[in-house]
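hey all, quick one before standup. I had two proteins in the batch that finished overnight and I want to keep them in one place so we stop losing track of which output belongs to which input. First protein below, input sequence then structure tokens straight from the run.
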Amino acid sequence: MKINHPRRDQQAATARASTVHVVRPDIILASGIRELDRLLKGFKAGEVTLVDGTSSLIAELPNQLCVMTYHTFHSETIYIDGGMRANPYTIARYARLLELDQRDVLENVVISRAFTVYQLSALIQEHLEPLIQRRTPRTLIIGMLPALYHDPDVRPQEAHTILAQDLAKLQELTTRYTLVTVLTNQDSMPLAPARGLGKILYDSVTDIVRMKQFEHSTTLELVNQEKTATILHGTAGQQRLEAFGLVI
């Protein structure tokens, strides 16, 4: 015979409820570029996204993401600059356009510069995780990631090995600390995705956005999903960010 125990049943129900897994919504960082955000649906935490191509927007994207990270999460960004592109003055200008306190924004951006492939690798392999633990950032940016691996003084096979190891470390840290990780590469000669450093890089990331600049427009391609979009540039001589589709 089954005996009802209301109190015991209530306690069991409460225990079962407490073990239900609550799925958090995706943590998403918008870039501030309308067409890119519509195409990519934002940069996602726990994923590594590569932005590659010839567009001048690529050089500005890390500076913009530093500001958008603070604007969205009031959190820090770690920005490792591998191509001398980080510009605190540009970050401050973007902050003013969003009516943010530029000092607050800059205090929440940690910039490290690497001048050789070995310095960059040491930053990623040895110094990055302690910095993440100390600063608890939301966003990690590696600007111009492949540039230093093209060093003529480094044998190609060695460069390939170092890049593969560094990318594996970045993926591990991105997953462990639920980071929004963005890698950028701007070059007049885009990476070859079927061989060499390009293949290693393309095979190691979650999403790839190609941005190709033309005289009056920039085309965007979300490679893995085969989706495209176009940014129409403003009139000649127009210098405002809106000319490049930035949402300010």
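OK second protein, same deal, sequence then tokens:
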Amino acid sequence: MSTATEQALVARVVQDMRGWLERAVIGLNLCPFAKSVHVKGQVHYVVSLATDPQALREELVRELAALHASDPELRDTTLLMAPLCLQDFLDFNDFLAEADAALDELGLEGELQIASFHPQFQFAGTAPDDITNYTNRAPYPTLHLLREASIDRAVQAFPEAEMIFEKNMQTLEQLGHAGWAALKVDASQQEPDAVPAPADDEEKDPR
């Protein structure tokens, strides 16, 4: 893959993820904690060009360490996207055990945690096209690295945080497949023209 092609891919992935974050996650209020860090520019976007799980794991280790070492006011959370790896949800789901192992190896359990999103996400016991699965669907396989302290503060600010999951199910059921499609947040739906160059808070795998 040429440097120009890599740069175009990185820019496109970040653009798609920002569109998803703004129109789905924030727009539908699927996560009431997301708007604040987005508005403050505290979401760090990293596009991995890894094509195999081991390379992605190595990058995950780097990003976990980098998030832990960074100033929370500048980088509160990290979205690590893998557009070239783990396209099958079952493979991605299996990889999450490796992700948790990496967190444990770094001694960061209790300080950071890893959430996950995938374009084929499927809750156990649901059909692939069940609309409730879309609460955890993103344009690309994504590892969301979060600070435990930030989660604790957010939960204190939203005393009914335990109800978010059920509320999201209801939101998606009311929205339906047509409503979700109208958001145009899937990678295949978003407009590819005029893709901006990566900003300073965006990174790609240097390999």
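Flagging for whoever picks this up: The chain has one domain: 3-204. The chain has a mean pLDDT of 90.
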